[in-house]
Amino acid sequence: MKPLVKYLLLIALLTSFANQVCKAQHCAWDYYGIMVADIKAGKTDSAVIKNLKITLLDSLEKPVVKERWDAHLLKYISDTVRFWQNPDSTTIKGYIDNENPFVPARMRFWFASSNYVCVTDYSITKPRPYGIKIEDVDGNANGGRFKTITVTLSKNDFYPLCNHFSNWDSGSQYGFVKGFKPVEVILKKK
Fold this sequence. Notes:
This protein has one domain (27-186). Strands 1, 5, 6, 9 and 10 form a five-stranded mixed sheet that branches. Strands 2-7-8 form a three-stranded antiparallel sheet, with no helix packed on it. The chain has a two-stranded antiparallel sheet with strand order 3-4. The radius of gyration is 22 Å and the shape is elongated. With 190 residues, it is mainly beta. It has one helix and ten strands.
């Protein structure tokens, strides 16, 4: 085979390979992790308390503010980082990309049951420590008026969603991160 033909075949092969690499789907959860809070009214009570306001705090006990995607405004806004109750089902359809942006509150995390979850990027893990402020904002509607408390988190309460230690999106038969355990909190009534 002539050198020019070999050269052209090599360029065609590399161009084809590069085109496929550019179209590769990357993990939508790169650099993101999750915190899970299991909040109950008593040690023997198995029901998670609904309608709580849970705010992530910095080391000075001030609310952490980050940029997040607002699906209604279709832009990024600065907002306080809060937990939400894990939904019963996932409402996101198809690939997560620019046309179907990442909205963590619409995704069900099977390992989190009906607990409260907070998905955010790794930048919140520095500096330490962080805490969460738990407030009962609906009064008697969730079974009682509970005292507002602050709980200190450890670095072990933040779990990666996209790396070789995390296989949560493969289903419950594969498990989650070894040693995963939600932050357990018992609230007291006022």
